[in-house]
Amino acid sequence: MRPSRTRPWLWAAVALVLIAGVALVTSYGKSSDVEDTGVKSGSFGTPVTRDGLLEYTLSAPICTATACTAGITVHNVSDVARKPGIAFATAYDARGAEHLIDAVAEIRGNTALLDDLAPGAQITDRLIYAMPAISSLLLRETPGSPGISFAVAG
Questions:
Q1: Does residue 1 form part of some domain?
Q2: Rg of the chain over CA atoms, in angstroms?
Q3: Each residue's pLDDT tens digit, 7-54
Q4: Does residue 89 sit within a domain?
Q5: Which helix (H) or strand (E) holds 126?
Q6: What is the pLDDT at residue 44?
Q7: CA–CA dist 19, 76 (Å, integer)
Q8: Which domain holds residue 63?
């Protein structure tokens, strides 16, 4: 009989597929054009909320040749526990192509963005994208939220 082995890469792959599925469902039929969707603008370092559920404070991304990382603080301003989630944080490159979060890197880094956040509580973590440059970030509080857009200078 073979000994039982844990396969963390398998769980990371399953998480990535689930996150991609949620992102596909939430973005189906939607435009990434800020003017047409009612997206709210945010500024790096300034707390902002769209729907009054989660308040975000985002730091400008730091990019290398292969990845970009942005610091994020999420404050639950609602009266019920919520998951901040990583599926609702999308990056766009200079061509306007959508990039999902690097779920494997987030899970390996033991992200707190997948945990329940109690009412009034806040967490500080990071968003990791497997891309060399970001032109904007879009955060959504819920799948149907138009979101908050952060333009990256550069």
A1: no
A2: 16
A3: 555 455 445 444 544 443 333 334 343 344 689 999 999 999 988 899
A4: yes
A5: strand 122-129
A6: 96
A7: 21
A8: 8-151
Instruction: Give 71-116 as a DSSP string.
Output: EEEEEE-SSS-B---STTEEEE-TT--EE---HHHHHHTT-STTS-
Tell me how crowded residue 141 is: count the other CB atoms within 10 A of its CB: 24
pLDDT at 23: 42
pTM passes above 0.90: no
Does the residue 131 lie in any domain?
yes
pLDDT, tens digit, 9 for 90 and up, residues 69-106: 999 999 999 999 998 888 889 999 999 999 999 999 99
Which of the four pLDDT bands, split at 50, 70 and 90, describes residue 1?
Answer: low
Which of 81, 86, 80 lies closest to 111 in space, CA to CA?
Answer: 86
The CATH number of the domain holding residue 63 is: 2.60.40.1240
In a domain, residue 3? The reply is: no
Residue 147: is it exposed, middle or buried by C-beta count within 10 angstroms (0-12/13-18/19+)?
buried
Give dist(CA 91, CA 68) in Å, integer.
10
CA count, 13 A, side-chain hemisphere, 99: 22
Please give the tally of structural domains in the chain.
1
